[in-house]
Amino acid sequence: MKLTEQRSSMLHGVLLITLFACAAFYIGDMGWVKALSLSPMIVGIILGMLYANSLRNNLPDTWVPGIAFCGKRVLRFGIILYGFRLTFQDVVAVGFPAIIVDAIIVCGTILLGVLVGRLLKMDRSIALLAACGSGICGAAAVLGVDGAIRPKPYKTAVAVATVVIFGTLSMFLYPILYRAGVFDLTPDAMGIYAGSTIHEVAHVVGAGNAMGAAVSNSAIIVKMIRVMMLVPVLLIIAFFVAKNVAERGDDTGGSSKINIPWFAILFLVVIGFNSLNLLPKELVDFINTLDTFLLTMAMSALGAETSIDKFKKAGFKPFLLAAILWCWLIGGGYCLAKYLVPMLGVGCLLLGVDEVRIRGNMFVFGCLLWDD
Predict the structure, then answer these.
(1) Which of 70, 93, 100, 151 has the fewest CB atoms within 10 Å, counting from its CB?
(2) How far is 57 from 55, CA to CA, in rounded Å?
(3) Burial code of 245-284, b = ≥16 C-beta within 10 A, e = fewer?
(4) How many CB atoms lie within 10 A of CB 300?
(5) How far apart are the first and last CA of the chain?
(6) Which residues does 47 contact at the CB level (< 8 Å), separation at least 6?
(7) Angle at 245 between CA 239 and CA 246, to 5 degrees
(8) 280-323 pLDDT per residue, tens
(9) pLDDT band at 1 (very low <50, low <70, confident <90, very high)
């Protein structure tokens, strides 16, 4: 009987978060929300935070396990299904220079974030989450790293907040500066610049549409390559987490076993499967919608664990770190798109690096490609 009561209590928490996700989808479909390019995931975490700071104390504590279930298990399943948005063919289509720029941006942003976080004497988890969110793919990256390092929910919510703020600023700023001629780049270079430096996928779509199809198409593909880089980043993070545990093991009895984030491996497997184009487009679209709903549930659950008091506890430093990373993305990313991309393009022509050789190199690294 007790087990049945526990399951019932968990179900109540899951249904509550499901209700929040449904509300987030409804609000996200409103015209003014679409104009801001705010995804249902972002709306979901806002609704969860409103709940955490208003009605949370009036509901039974027995519902908490269901909320935690959505913030952990549902989250990982959502990250796995996120792979249906990507294919390895997209990587080949965008070209070698864009891949190099993405790699530099991802590595540079994460390393800079960790370094600045130490200089600011910040909480390490928040610094890492904010850096990965800024460097890879916004909230989805924050959620992925959350599954690997398992910080307190409020820390994840703080990192997501920084991504939303500065990603939204980029979405409006890039088109304005591009049309004003401040960003003196060709459409292809601007697409690489936007896709490699703007935080959220939704923000890239919004900014790309405002700059025209020539920019938007390449920007979205470049952004998706950044999303793929989440997998090696998670594996590296898992290695260092295990290393830290091993260093403490002498005193605390901790285990040095590496906890591989299997959801990240499955994410890569799903990308490979999606690259085969075996499923009809309608089914893939349905899976992507379902995945967005699951990630919205996860974001709502994280928001439900975040109160204003916890934001005060995190302090101003996370937002300062995010601002520094934002400046690096704008300045450093522009220099890469302006000067490095043309050099890499010429270098590829001189060396004869064509599509076939790129495919061969990717296959060596274990990437399964399948052309129609």
Answers:
(1) 93
(2) 6
(3) beeeeeeeeeeeeeeebebbebbbebbbbbbeeeeeeeee
(4) 32
(5) 56
(6) 20, 23, 24, 27, 300, 303
(7) 90
(8) 999 999 999 998 899 888 878 877 876 677 667 667 889 999 99
(9) very low
Average pLDDT over residues 168-187: 87
Residue 35 belongs to what H/E stretch? Answer: helix 31-35
Specify whether the CB–CB gap between 297 and 20 falls below 8 A. yes
Q: Which of left, alpha, beta for 285 (phi over 0: left; psi -120 to 50: alpha)? A: alpha
CB 171: neighbour CB atoms within 10 A?
25
172 C-beta neighbours (distance < 10 Å), count: 15
d(CA 8, CA 81): 27
pLDDT in tens, 315-341: 788 999 999 999 999 999 999 998 888
Cα(122)–Cα(166) distance, rounded to whole angstroms?
19
- The residue behind tokens 């990308």 is 271
| Amino acid residing at 30 | M
Task: Please state, in angstroms and rounded to a whole number, the distance separating the CA atoms of residues 238 and 232.
Answer: 10
Name the 3-class secondary structure at 183.
coil
Handedness of CA 29, 139, 87, 215 (dihedral sign): positive
- Kindly give, in sequence order, each residue whose CB lies less than 8 Å from that of residue 142, ignoring residues fewer than 6 positions away: 129, 130, 132, 133, 156, 159, 160, 163
**Cα atoms in the 13 Å half-sphere on the side-chain side of 152:** 13
Could you give the residue ranges of the DSSP H alpha helices within 180-212? 187-197, 201-211
In the block, tokens 């022509």 appear at 349
pLDDT, one tens digit per residue, over 110-141 is 999 999 999 999 888 889 999 999 998 887 78
Sort residue 151 into left (φ over 0), alpha (ψ -120 to 50) or beta.
Answer: beta
Look up residue 190 and give its two tokens: 């601007």
CA dist 292 and 283 (Å) reads: 14
Residue 35's Cβ-count burial label (10 Å; 0-12, 13-18, 19+) is exposed
How far is it, in rounded angstroms, from Cα 169 to Cα 136?
17
- With CA atoms as reference, report the closest residue to 52 among 67, 73, 65: 67
Please give the structure tokens belonging to residue 259.
Answer: 């906890």
